[in-house]
Amino acid sequence: MDKSGQGSRQASGDISTALTKLAEEQKGLGAGSTTGGKIESAAAQRELHRSWKRYLKGVSGKCGTFQDRLEKAGDHHYKNDAATMRAFNRLEGLYKDTKPVGGESRDR
Amino acid sequence: MDYVTLKSLKPSEFEDAARGYRTVSDMASQAKDDLEQQVTAGMRRSLEGDGVDAAVEQIQKLATNFHYTQVECAIITTALNSLAYELRLAKDKLDAAVEDAEAEKFTVQSDGSVSYPASGDKVDGKVPEGGTVKGSAQGKATNNPIDPAGDANDTAEALKRQASNHHDNPKYGRAVAIADRIAQAVYEATQADEKWAPKLRRLKADDDMVVAAEDWADAKKDAGGVRSGAKEYLHDLKAPPKGGSPKENAEWWKGLSKDEQDAYAALNPSTLGKLDGIPADVRDEANRTNLAEAEAAINLKLDRFDKERPEPTKYEQRWDNIRQVPIQGEVQVTQAWKAWKAERDGIKERLKGIAAIQIRFGRTGERGLPQAYLMGFSPEGRGRAIIANGNPDSADHIAVYTPGTGASLSNSNGDINRGVNLWKTSQSLTDQDVSTVTWIGYDAPQDIFPDATQHGYADNAGGAYNQFIDGLNATNKSGSDSHITSVAHSYGTTTIGMAAKEGDLGVDDIVFAGSPGARVDNAADLDVSKGHVWNEHARGDNLVNGTGRFFHGGGISRIDPTDDIFGANQMATDTDGHSGYWDYDDKTGKPSLSIENQGRVITGHYDEVKLKPRSDGSLMPSDWRNPINWND
């Protein structure tokens, strides 16, 4: 169980590191910078960065929740097999696809 | 975008941003692998029953978040690098023009216009005045109706040329030229900026945490959009040699820089995934993307089908066709429903093979089962699946298993499992690294009769098989010194025979199981050294030594590999029938003798292979290598 818990904890940590690196590398394209100022692509890039920052934070959160369940399962926190199963299946409900229609209509 | 902006713009800042996304993509790739290999394996050890399945399902979803991140961020990296490349071209042009202006002692104004001083021979007692000119870019329609018959630009150009020829100030002409270059540079930078801004916006992350089919469809479109936009950046990125040999493909790949490899992989996963000579891990990543996108496309197709074709009425009153009257109290299935079901099943069919591959991904870690490398995948036609257990490039011993009749992507579960069993068996016999590959790389005949009596299938497959083997030899750490064994079943053996006949089959050992005939009349024609052809014919396998030899046997007398005269080593078996050759007891971890003998060949333990007595009753000594007919 330790190994599997470790795996998702590691993934969370790695996301943090990557996000920091991503942010660092964006510095030159910030709104106030010389390059960032009047360039349409730089503005687009800032929106892009914001979206991926949000997404990765969401994935990190998902890792955390999963890891939490794994650890509980490992500690025999759930009364039985069926309870374990329910615990993991509930993750399904937490992360629902919000799109009512296809990706094309998504606000991009 | 204007003169001042371009002047101070640093293209490297876009490249820095690109690097940031590359870091994210690599992180996501690593996380996806870790989840598949360590976490799933760890969970299987500690959880039980339904709990495992529920947990595994959630892990796979989490892994998909990472996979989606990996794919999209790799595309973003390429987009930003391409933008940087184009901006740099424009900026270099601008810098050169400004330098020339300074050399001429002209002043470039903040709007990009160029001021030139008074100069030249006196006219009417005065030195011609200086002035300021604004340049214009070519290719940019001005939409000004100076001359309704033509573009205003052309007219402006003509006027300028006329003017500079007659202008008294010799510096005028040169100032105009520089101003034009400045305008051109700014124009090109603007074009690049306006092209890439919307493309970048389309690469924004999904707004929810579920990677749906639409998200993969979008990712595929994104790759296409960036590919078309990045033509300039990728222009120097030569495509793989057309019709190149695996060796040439390998050289091509090695000749690319890391950035170029990443760009190619991000934008052309379907080409890269099937290129023999490309490293296994690269093909694997490309094909995992292809797999995700294909699965998504099929699911979207199914959704569309369900929306447009709701299930028709299934039952109707039974009809007596002879008396042309309805039969009371009985029902029959409607034609409409049968047609609907057939069409729907046809779409769903393709998902079966994809599921089989994903099941294999989920089995990594089970009793030490190494990572799977998806070296080939295509949902087209009968489908292709080439899946390795363990990395063949770093392995000491490689076995390539080719199934026979009925092989297809949809039916791949059993054949993938045979590859797994071969790995378990072989790896337990050696300390060296073993990789086994299930090769569903050709359109196998789907039925024994009449399909499997045709040659056509094997003919096409032979060439593909040779290429694949050449690819393994090109990418393995030991090159062509690596030890490769072909293991083939049934009609797959005929394919191997064709491969040997058509080209130079680059393997070291050949194992046949249940062969109906291999198109050659002697083992010596199979391109391996003496004594390196091994055959299994199990008790009760009636497909062998039967009519098959008349269609696939070698030579005039239609010899097949079970005949002594063929010259193969006849290995002992303890399984029954045509399909038992890879039996392996998962509960006890014990291989059948049939599969264990194969494992001994695969790992090079030739002396330990248990052989069958010959038809004259004599037991072949294990070092006997000379059949009667072996051509020396």
Short description:
Chain B: Residues 379-543 form the DUF1023 domain. The complex is a heterodimer of chains A (108) and B (632). With 108 residues, chain A is mostly helical.
What is the CATH topology descriptor of the largest domain in chain B? Rossmann fold
DSSP summary, beta strand count of chain B: 15
Given the helix and strand composition of chain A, which structural class is it?
A: mainly alpha
Mean of residue pLDDT of chain A?
70
Based on CA atoms alone, the radius of gyration of chain A comes out at: 19 Å
CATH class descriptor name of the largest domain in chain B? Alpha Beta
What summary fits the major beta sheet of chain A? none
The neighbouring-strand order within the major sheet of chain B is 6-7-9-8-10-11-12-13
Can you tell me about this structure?
With 108 residues, chain A is mainly α. Chain A contains three helices and no strands. In chain A, helix 1 runs antiparallel to helix 2 and helix 2 runs antiparallel to helix 3. Chain B is an alpha/beta fold. The chains are: A mainly alpha (108), B alpha/beta (632).
Outline the fold blueprint:
The complex is a heterodimer of chains A (108) and B (632).
Chain A: H1 2-26, H2 40-74, H3 81-94
Helix pairs in contact in A: 1-2, 2-3
Chain B: H1 3-8, H2 11-46, H3 49-103, E1 107-108, E2 114-116, E3 131-133, H4 152-166, H5 170-202, H6 213-229, H7 231-235, H8 246-254, H9 258-267, H10 269-273, H11 280-308, E4 315-320, E5 325-333, H12 335-363, E6 372-378, E7 384-389, E8 397-402, H13 412-427, E9 434-440, H14 456-475, E10 483-489, H15 491-502, E11 509-513, E12 533-536, H16 548-552, E13 569-570, E14 584-585, E15 590-591, H17 593-602
Parallel strand pairs in B: 8-9, 8-10, 10-11, 11-12, 12-13
Antiparallel strand pairs in B: 1-2, 2-3, 4-5, 6-7, 7-9, 14-15
Helix pairs in contact in B: 2-3, 3-5, 3-6, 3-9, 4-5, 5-6, 6-11, 11-12, 12-13, 13-17, 14-15
Protein name (chain B): DUF1023 domain-containing protein
Domain DUF1023 (chain B): 379-543
Organism (chain B): Streptomyces coffeae
